C-alpha cells in the first residue's frame, strides 16, 4: 500500500514533491491506519479515493507548473551548484565566481576560431589537390597559429590561477 | 491585497480555511477536522488536500506555522490576515445568499 502511494507520489513535479511528499505520506499513513480499523469496505473505498486523488492531483500540478510563469510562482528547484557551500564566506564565494566568469573565454571566441581552423584546413586540402605547395604551406602555417590560439584560449582559466 | 475573491470558494478551500480559523493544523488534523465540520460528508484525499494547500500558500492565504516540533511530516499551517479576510468575505456572501433565499421561500409560501 505504502509502496503504491510512494510510486504515485513520483508522478508529481519535483518541486512539489520536495515540499509536500513527506507530509502527504505521513498524513496518508495515519489515515490508512484509521480507515483499516473501520472495516474492509471502507478501507478499499479510502484506498481507491486516495490513489485516484493522487493521480488527478499530479496531473493538475503538472498543468499548473507548465502553465505558470516561473518568475511569478518560482516553481523551480534551486540550482544547488549555484549555492554557496556551508563555511565558505560570502565575499570569497562571490569573488571567486566573478573571477571565474572573467577568466573563462567567451564561447563565441572559441567557436569562431574553430570555424576558422576548419576553413583553413579545407583551403589547404584544395591547395594540395591543385599541387599549389606554396599556398598550402602558407595555409598550414596560418592553421598552426590558429590552433595555438585556440589551445591558449582553452587553457586560459588554468594559466591565470 | 494580493488576491481578491471574485468567485465563490470551492468547498475544499472553504473547509480548509474554516478549519484553520481557530488554530493552526497540520495535514492529517485538517483531514479529520474537515470530516467533522462537514458531518462526515466531505473526506478529502491527501492529493486534493495538498493541492489546495499549495494554491493557498501561493496566494498567501495560509502560511507555514513555526513550531517547536519542526519535523517535515508535521508541518502545520495557519491563516494569514488575507486568508481570514477572504473567509469572512465568503461567509458574508453565503449569509446574504441565505437571507435572499429565505425571503424568496417565505414569499412563495405566503
How is this structure best summarized?
The complex is a heterodimer of chains A (161) and B (110). Chain A is mainly alpha-helical and 161 residues long.
Q: What top-tier CATH class of chain B fits best? A: Mainly Alpha
Q: In which range does the helix fraction of chain A lie?
A: over 70%
Main sheet of chain A, how many strands, which sense, barrel?
Answer: none
Structural class of chain A: mainly alpha
* SS field, number of helical segments of chain A: 7
List keywords for this structure.
heterodimer, A: 161 residues, mainly alpha, 2 domains, elongated, B: 110 residues, Arc Repressor Mutant, subunit A, 3-stranded antiparallel beta sheet, 56% helix
Descriptive notes:
Chain A is an all-alpha fold and 161 residues long. Chain A folds into 2 domains: 2-73, no CATH class; 103-160. Chain A contains 7 helices and no strands. The mean pLDDT of chain A is 78. Chain B has 110 residues and is mainly alpha-helical. Chain B has helices spanning 11-19, 27-37, 46-58, 81-109, and strands spanning 25-26, 62-65, 76-79. In chain B, strands 1-3-2 form a 3-stranded antiparallel beta sheet. Chain B is elongated. The A-B interface holds A 16, 19-20, 22-28, 30-31, 46, 49-50, 52-58, 60-61, 64, 73 and B 26-28, 31, 43, 45-51, 53-55, 58, 72-75.
SSE layout and pairing:
The complex is a heterodimer of chains A (161) and B (110).
Chain A: H1 2-9, H2 14-38, H3 40-67, H4 70-73, H5 90-103, H6 107-129, H7 133-160
Chain B: H1 11-19, E1 25-26, H2 27-37, H3 46-58, E2 62-65, E3 76-79, H4 81-109
Antiparallel strand pairs in B: 1-3, 2-3
Amino acid at each position: 500500500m505504502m509502496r503504491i502511494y510512494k510510486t504515485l507520489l513520483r508522478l508529481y513535479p519535483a518541486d512539489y514533491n520536495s515540499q509536500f511528499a513527506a507530509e502527504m505520506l505521513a498524513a496518508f499513513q495515519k489515515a490508512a491506519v484509521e480507515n483499516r480499523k473501520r472495516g474492509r469496505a471502507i478501507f478499499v473505498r479510502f484506498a481507491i479515493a486516495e490513489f485516484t486523488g493522487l493521480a488527478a492531483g499530479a496531473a493538475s500540478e503538472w498543468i499548473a507548473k507548465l502553465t505558470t510563469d516561473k518568475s511569478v510562482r518560482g516553481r523551480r528547484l534551486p540550482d544547488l551548484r549555484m549555492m554557496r557551500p556551508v563555511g565558505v564566506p560570502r565575499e570569497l564565494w562571490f569573488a571567486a565566481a566573478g573571477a571565474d566568469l572573467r577568466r573563462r573565454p567567451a564561447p563565441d571566441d572559441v567557436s569562431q576560431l574553430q570555424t576558422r581552423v576548419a576553413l583553413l584546413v579545407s583551403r589547404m586540402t584544395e591547395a594540395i589537390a591543385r599541387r599549389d605547395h606554396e599556398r598550402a604551406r602558407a595555409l598550414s602555417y596560418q592553421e598552426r597559429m590558429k590552433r595555438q590560439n585556440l589551445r591558449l584560449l582553452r587553457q586560459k582559466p588554468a594559466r591565470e590561477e | 491585497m494580493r488576491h481578491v475573491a471574485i468567485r465563490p470558494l470551492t468547498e475544499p478551500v472553504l473547509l480548509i480555511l474554516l478549519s484553520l480559523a481557530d488554530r493552526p493544523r497540520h495535514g492529517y488534523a485538517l483531514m479529520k477536522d474537515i470530516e467533522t465540520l462537514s458531518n462526515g460528508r466531505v473526506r478529502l484525499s491527501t492529493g486534493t488536500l495538498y493541492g489546495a494547500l499549495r494554491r493557498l500558500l501561493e496566494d498567501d492565504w495560509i502560511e507555514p506555522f513555526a513550531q517547536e516540533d519542526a519535523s517535515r511530516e508535521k508541518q502545520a499551517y495557519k491563516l494569514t490576515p488575507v486568508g481570514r479576510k477572504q473567509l469572512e468575505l465568503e461567509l458574508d456572501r453565503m449569509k446574504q445568499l441565505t437571507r435572499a433565499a429565505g425571503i424568496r421561500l417565505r414569499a412563495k409560501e405566503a
